[in-house]
Structures
1.
Amino acid sequence: MRFALLREPLFQFLVLGGALFGLFHLVDGRKAERPARIVISSARIANLADGFARTWQRPPGTEELQGLVDDYIRDEVFYREGRAAGLDRDDVIIRRRVRQKMEFSAEDATVPEPSEAQLAAYLEANPERFKSEDHFTFRQIFLSATRRATTIDGDSKRVANALTGADAAIDATALGDAFLLGEEFQAVSPQEVASVFGDGFAKRISVMEPGRWQGPVPSSFGQHFVYISERIPGGVPPLDAVRQAVRREWSNARRLEAEQKLYASLRERYEIVVEMPPARSAQIDGAAQIDRSTQIQTSR
Amino acid sequence: MTMPTLQRTSFTVLLATGLAAPLAANFSVPAFAADPAVTTDIGTLDQETAEKAFPARPPYSPYAGRNFPTRPFFGDTHLHTSFSMDAGAFGARLGPRDAYRFAKGEEVIASSGQHAKLSRPLDFLVVTDHSDGMGFFPQLMSADPALLATPQGRKWYDEINSGKGAVAAVDIITSFGKGQLPKGFPTPGTPAYRSAWRETIKAAEEANDPGRFTAFIGYEWTSNAGGNNLHRNVIWRDNGAKASLIEPFTTQPPLGSPNPRDLWKWMAMCEEKTGAEILALAHNGNLSNGRMFPIVESFTGKRIDREYAENRTRWEPLYEATQIKGDGETHPFLSPNDEFANFERWDKGNLDLTELKKPEMLEFEYARSALKNGLKMEAELGVNPYKFGLVGSTDAHTGLAAVEEDNFFGKTSSSEPSPERATHPFVKTDKAVIMGWEQTASGYAAVWATENTREAIFDAMKRRETYATTGPRMIVRFFGGWDFEASDANNRMPAKIGYTKGVPMGGDLSNAPNGKSPSFLVAALKDPIGANLDRIQVIKGWLGKDGQTQERIYDVAVSGDRKIDADGRSKTPVGNTVDIPNATWTNTIGAGEMITVWKDPDFDPALRAFYYVRVIEIPTPRWTAYDAKYFGVTMPKEAPMTTTERAYTSPIWYTP
């Protein structure tokens, strides 16, 4: 019901009319004073033109520029008058925006280029973030469940026997079926193996010893015998290999730190008195909820 | 360039690189690849120059001087986050950063508060927020004074904060459609807009991890004239340094335009002025009411001309043929003899259901009919405007590229998993209703790129070496040439023989050797954690002597002991193992893999034609079945409970 009323054009008209009336009254009171000046500096105009050019990669034409300037003047007039009328005070929206700008200003403060030593120290302190997985190079002999619907178990045993004691050089062609993605996989990570063969397969071969044929390892395609010729151990790479990622993480950490520092230093200037009312659970719930959404917003 | 040249080129490469190297191509991914700028190659620039000079010429061999792709990369070219105003209005709170994290396989908290994680990571993602009003929602929610000073802005803000987000959402979208937006609405050049675009770029730059995960920079140009969907996604090959030199093109005059011709002009200008390389792909022709693939342009009422054709084919190498708002391959009205055509249809009207669909519109909406009309236009104009490859993508507005049937997070944040989502109307006007259950858990883009980097994936998209899937990650190979023989299907290196003897999906054939018909090496491997395959089909379209287009479907491989009849069809269905109440199925029917060589039995070297592959999975539970089971709800009778997932490859064209 209440919302239906809000949508009534007559109601909206009345509210709007009332607001305008109030505003005119305020404005009217100051009419007699000398008109204030609004100067649109050439720097401001260049700034407006810049914005236009960013889209079109060409400067605005005379008329377009005039339009931009007119609009800016309109902005400025309303902005000043609104502030003069005190419309900015106690407005949660403006408070929030100003707070956000403060937070951004900490973020925007130019983070200096990290030194070599700083990067190295950061990598050493946060190795987990940059660690790479083990990689494998392996060949497979594939027994297709589709092609060998009824014989696959027997075939698998025969292959296992043939492979006993065999090395990588064995001619796998004679033993298995063609696999659409091939027989040899070089320097693949467990994640890549999983994307082709499934998770279970990747887990099995991750723990296999290199240097001999092993299997069968089942997948949803059939059975596989695997010869790992090389395991490239993962671990924390040298700084040179991850310099960009380390720099990114380092800068990010610095940014967060700067914001926190700014807040701490500003907060120090205040003596804070919280007059907590007797707990009312419903209100606190509500507050927590609002807090969460705010946080999500500002985290962008 | 002629076919024999192409063959020779790829063959030389193979000889030069040997056998193991090509196999290793994708997998010899260094853990920490070099800076993307270093991996830049200038081949594509050459290609473009060449295409401009000789538009009828087939793409140059993409394999010269490098290895061929050994595995496809799966991703989403079309995902919205809270930066898109409509997504935000529907409750999306996840931004581009969250979207990339989710695509990389990390667990995130969805906007509805539920934990969400993919079954396995994607290989790439493009966050494509709407260019109009980009960042509007974060701006509104952070209570931007300029915006809140407007009655509309204030009203929306209050509505959303008092739990009336849906009311606000509808109002926001309707106002946008009518061009009635409040002052302070972010347009290019305003600080809010710039900051949103900068954030978008920053999120992609941070998420991009060459060799492991590709985060493209992009946006959606959402032309919606009269509620008719002409949307395009724009993707950068380059990094943030180039993308931040410019701000996206919008559809609202005076800065933007709803006419694709203006988008193409902007793209040309962008490439020229910033040195970037970009491409665009359209989607949801099914909601364009006959305007997506026009023969007569809706903006001028005139037949499309050579300039339109050249630009469209230059800038739009791909089409998004399947997504949450329905499948766009073909329609039963257009393909009456195709028993798989009636799939996830959204054919009630245009995007906002302000205008109902008429049958005569369909021809200009679906991929297959557009490919056919492209042949016709090529005969008329000398350029084929609709020579596009196919991908699928989600178009989710949740920040979550989650379209697995058992892990479907819906189109908008209000359609994230809940007991009611299927039975709530999705779009409702006085003309028609689309219900929640009609959302399609689809799709992804598969790209045969040489490595997982922006450059390699972008280049593969440009040469159309891609296919669409409706969600599963089946692997599909498709090569066309003149010399494939039945024994090639038993070759141990299908990829090697394919690239040696022919061209891959997206490629061209011409100069038919005397008396020869084109032959194709076709193969598919099921998703390692998915369902078996029912069949592989080749779909042929051609332009007859009488100037009329034709289409025909051939079953080229079927599972089990079913037979393919003399007419090239196998009419026996594969069967159905789906247990709907329990939302399960078994792989006791179908095949895990299929490979064959197929020769066109009806080839006429004088006629233009295209061929593409469709792979059909065995029936599996649709997301509605998983929802019914999980939430213990009953679905409406008309809601399908099973689906047949599928893949569509880019065509191979034959030009006399």
Note: The radius of gyration of chain A is 35 Å.
2.
Amino acid sequence: MVKKHVEVGTTAVAMAMRQINPDVVAAYPITPQTAIVQTFSQYVADGKVDTEFITVESEHSAMSSCVGAAAAGARVMTATSSAGLALMWEILSVASGLRVPITMVNVNRALSAPINIHCDHSDSMGARDSGWVQIYSENSQEVYDNVIQAIKISENEEVRLPVMVMMDGFIISHGIEEFETLEDGDVKNFIGENRPKFSLLNIKEPVTHGPLQLFDYYFETKRQQVDAIYKSRLVIREVGKEYEKLSGRSQPIIEKYFADDAELIIIVLSSTAGTAKSVVNELRKEGLKVGLIKPRIFRPFPYYELKEALKNTKAIAVLDRSNSFGAQGGPLYIEIRSALYELTKKPLIKNYIYGLGGRDISLENIRSVYSDLEDITKISRVEKPVSYLGVRK
Amino acid sequence: MKIVKKGWKEIPIGGVILEAGNASDYNTGDWRSQRPIWNEEKCIHCLQCFVYCPDASIDVKDEKITGINYFYCKGCGICAEICPEEAIELIPETKVSETEIKVSEMS
């Protein structure tokens, strides 16, 4: 039976964690993530889960504990934000390099300086090459769904990689929304038993994790890792189909909203997709052929899906909620532009950096983007490839 | 032992080591850029090189040096430095002939 809740987004994550009942959670508080582990620690104190909750002195220690516990064969979860993710930086690639499954929720928050607690994607985008699977969520329902699927993706025999699930700081983490949860038993059956591949606690088959590999084997190990994250594409799709059967909610790699016949398309991650959808609704009523694409998965990057979805589009605006300083645009734009390179008929494409440090993105902002796209199609060229949406002149 | 390095599809994931004590299989000799050449005629078998070698690369039998183990020797040159008779000479690996390279792959 479906249960409906009206709660903040962090509670949706904590509820998913309670149903997952991980063996170990090692976490450190940081705004706006704190409410996740705070709510979860109450479940631990109340005996609602069997989790060993490790309170640590920093995020570096949190991720290190997660790696150790996962290598020991435990099902492990954690959560962080911004500077916390930055402090985990070293251990992120240890986790993916050692091929230990870990599920982490990152509540997107800007990086300092200037110090700022609000949403942008510079934290997780900075970690995009750390070898983690990255899933972005639009709302509380999606973050709940993604966290449960992340366990199954991460522990898959072909994948064995850590998974990072993103939600927008404050906008979703502290916004009250309605969402549905599955039955506890259904979640338990869906994620199944954790079957660690090489457990440190299995004394019958002793193994060494994390030995030195220099120029003789490091490259081969990294090549394997490339293969694993590549194969995770299929696993993410299969897990999504299975989850859809259970929940009734589809789990596309990229969500297409009025995109099939659209001439002008906005591509954006996370909560801004919700804002953009209501603009699409308005403009469709006016008869404009506009659409939206929201990639749910950023790593592995869904270039096949995007190339296929965009081949008949006239003009595309990619909205990035982070900078890549000195690059040719934001991270999402760079990858999408690259994905379109092989098309013989290339759509026009423009990048907007928006919403840094939690700057609001309004319906009017989104409308102006579609209006820019119309102008671009009229002159058939993009004069300014990268613009800054919502910044004062 | 001929060293055959495994391909990326053949090794366990994440660099995991599945057997105990396999450090002896590690061909640290391929770190070497300088090669010690032992001159048997000059050697007085004082075994100083054996004592000072930070690895286990000086082969000894019945208290006599029998050669240098290039499978492990990293070419640090301590043996050449410590030898009182200049019986060990370091030469760059680039100057080692093809036949000698083959020898270095044996242990």
Note: The mean pLDDT of chain A is 97.
